Amino acid sequence: MREMDEEWKYTAVYGVIVVALLMQVALALLSRSLGIIAPIGILSISGLQATFVFMIFMQGRYGTRAITAFMALSVATLLPLFIALIFSVGFPQHAVPGP
Amino acid sequence: MVEWGPLRRWLFTTNHKDIGILYLLTSMYFLVAGGVLALTFRVQLSVPESEFLNPDSYNQAVTLHGLIMVLWVITPMAAAFANYVVPIQIGAKDMAFPRLNALSYWVYLASGMMVLSSFFAPGGTADWGWTTYAPLNTLRFSPATSGSVMGLALMLLMASGIVSTVNFLVTIFRLRAPGMKLVHMPLFTWFWLFTLLLMLWAFPAFLAPLTLLVADRVLGTVFFTSAEGGSLLWNHLFWFFGHPEVYILVLAGLGIIGELFSVFSRRPVYGKKIIIASLIAASILSYTVWVHHMFMTGVHRGLREAFNITTEIISIPFGIIVLSYMFTLIGGRIRFKTPMLFAIGALILFTIGGVSGVFNSSVALNYGLRGTFWVVAHFHYVIVGGALTGLFAGLYYWFPKMTGRMYNEKLGKIHFITYFVGFNLLYFPMHFLIDMPRRIVTYGAETGWGDINLLITVGGFIFGFSQIVMFANLLYSLVKGPVADKDPWGGASLEWITSSPPPKFNFDEGIPVITTQGVEFQTSAPNGGTVHEEEYGGEHLSPWPIIVSAGAGIALLGAALSLPLFVLGLVVFALSVIGWGWEDLREKFHVTVDAIGEKWPFDGVENSSLGMWFFVFGEITFFGSLIGGYVFLRANSTLTGFWWPPPGQVHDIFFGAFNTIILITSGLTMALALHSIRQGSQRGLRASLLVTFLLGLLFLINKGIEWTELFSEGITFSTDIASSTYFLLTGVHGAHVLSGLLAMVYLITKAFRGGFSQEKHKAVESFGIYWGVVVSVWVLLFPLFYLL
Predict the structure, then answer these.
(1) Which tens digit of pLDDT belongs to each residue from B664-709?
(2) Are B450 and B47 in contact (CB under 8 A)?
(3) Left (φ > 0), alpha (ψ -120 to 50) or beta: where does B301 sit?
(4) How many interface pairs between A and B have CB atoms less than 8 angstroms apart?
């Protein structure tokens, strides 16, 4: 019975990820009318899909808590880089070369 | 006639102590090469208007000196001691993955040989400075092919470092002896652990801009030549690696200093837990300070202020470490042996460098100091004074352990005195050249810099001479030195309870067990294994690490120089990888370095899976940096006026979605493959693996179709920044899929040979983790190119 549960769980998660993908496509197609909601929705769904793959397909939750902690640390390491990169172009004080 | 035996041992060894010695000898070789280069440009600068070197030769000498010293000398020398000592200090028999350990060394050597060979290429070697700034690093300003060789060599070196890092982390976390809790680990191992954690995220982060650079130079992409990318993108991605790299260089030396202070003052380290807490703080902060290298780039004032503060804060944990070391000495009976002299010297020099660093952190002062010899003085005090001097302390300290012979104490002291005097004559006067730019080939007599420069060059030659004393001492002592006791210093860590040099598997008496009374030995492992040699299947030699490395080196050299060489390297690489896999399938290399002791916090994850997880953590900063680059380029395109194609314009949304579903489905079938073998279903495993393979192949074929269509429409790597980004990111991901498919051939072959069972399926589990990354990264990349 437990074996069946496992297989159903993988398949259900797969279904969720694929449906989420279709939602992303729909958001992209409607992006003109949805405005800023579309890219935010698309990127959020991608993040959730990657989290599902980590937790279920990559057996993240079967590892120790340390695996999840290291995963979080790895992602957190990138946070300052993204902030600095966005800040650098969002609020430029450098000369932008001409075309 | 060459005797094959000893040569075979050194070429095919997978023993951690042999590999440690190989690292040490190679890093010493590069030290001499880097040192000679330094002396040539010091001669050039010693007098005004010198013509000893022409500007091109000068630039090449400075570039190669910096890159060799930072990347091919200091970290590898630390890795030499770590290889030799860390497994013994934690009570392990060897590293977790002995063949990967050998592979790391040979890949390191191959990358170094590529760099040195680039000197003899037409146009000379790279001449862009060790920071490899854009746009100097582009074909327009550095057209010589040796620039591409340098980029590829750096990539190879990072690959070596990543493999080594993963191996060490699994070793330290999973192979500690019974009773060896993390907190019991000696200080050197602790510092090495934090070095590894920094390398885990910094090296892949450096691999990302290197990939962009090599793509620019070899494939014609436009990351650093376009207005959207350019120098600011390189600066961010390089220094995001570059500043943690400073701590990667320094920590091992600092760990040695602490350990030696304790041993030679006969006192426990003062505040060990506080030191560890400081290490945690410094490691976290090390990823939040890199913009202080970019204050002059014109990044926003808010960023400059924030990074000014974080840079000042990071001096606090290092200050605490220095104070703890000083308190360790108080009340101790200090023995001023050569290792201790170097340790004290290292702490003094590191402190001077640290104090001058605080000045650099100030935005206002930085404007004046940037690009002057003050900065050269600062980082040499930190990196040579702190890191290299600390490593020399370790060299004298562990020399008796590694060779079984004592060095000559008198010559050791002469080495220290000439080293310390030479070092300070060389670098301290640079603080006074606060108005002299550091990147000039010569200067006029009217500047008044001549006398100080002459003094600096004299110091440089004294410093160089001191190393000759060291080499003479160590070579003489190797042959004629008195036989060393197993514990000549009264050390407390485990390497001092075993013979000098230690036996092949470190402890002849059995497995060391750490108890409240001290160290005891048990002769049989709790899981029924033994500690005897037969467990390793003979001498545990393997020819494949060196051959794989040779193949990789030749292929990468060929990628920059010639197609036939590239094909030859690729053939050697492919055949040797097959040979490695075949060795595995036939269980010719049977090494079981099982986890039998302390494994916290990874008790539930076996060695190969944990190795794969660590690799995955590194992959996150690799792909994260690439995606960060994409975000930067996309955002910057709005400033430059570049029109980024909207969704559906270049890439077919539905075709992309279809291909994404294929890859996600392969993720499901891979999870089912693992599930099947856990249930003992061989049929389920084989079927699931085959379907996963076919889906992965279909994904790649679709990508190939998509690329071909784009090429036929005239959209290539160099069309614009959008096409460059698309081809690079999907190409790198495709390379991961391809590697996965090749690994799957091995898994499928093994599955059909009945090589997996309900109890024994580590490779399937590890590969499942890898394949999960391949799927996850794609679900993040797909919207970037198809939907946004």
Answers:
(1) 999 999 999 999 999 999 999 999 999 999 999 999 999 999 999 9
(2) yes
(3) alpha
(4) 193
pLDDT, tens only, B31-77:
999 999 999 999 999 999 999 999 999 999 999 999 999 999 999 99
Nearest CA in chain A to B667: A57
**Residues of chain B positioned with their CB less than 8 A from the CB of A61:** none
Minimum CA–CA partner of A14 in chain B:
B668
Nearest to A88 among B205, B236, B604 (CB): B236
For residue B240, CA distances in Å to B199, B209, B245 come to: 12, 10, 9
Contact of B769 with B609, CB cutoff 8 Å? yes
A50:B631 CB<8 A: no
A57 and B653: CB-CB below 8 Å?
no
CB count within 10 Å of CB B402 equals 22
User: B265 and B329 in contact (C-beta within 8 Å)?
Assistant: yes
Specify whether the CB–CB gap between B153 and B108 falls below 8 A.
Answer: no
Q: Which of A36, A68, A88, A96 to mutate to test the interface with B (most CBs of B within 10 A)?
A: A88
In this structure, chain A runs to a length of 99
d(CA B179, CA B511): 11
Residue B566 in tokens: 């590239």
Going by C-alpha positions, the residue among B515, B493, B516 that lies closest to residue B187 is B493
Chain B residues whose beta carbon lies within 8 Å of the beta carbon of residue A58 = 616, 768-769, 772-773, 776
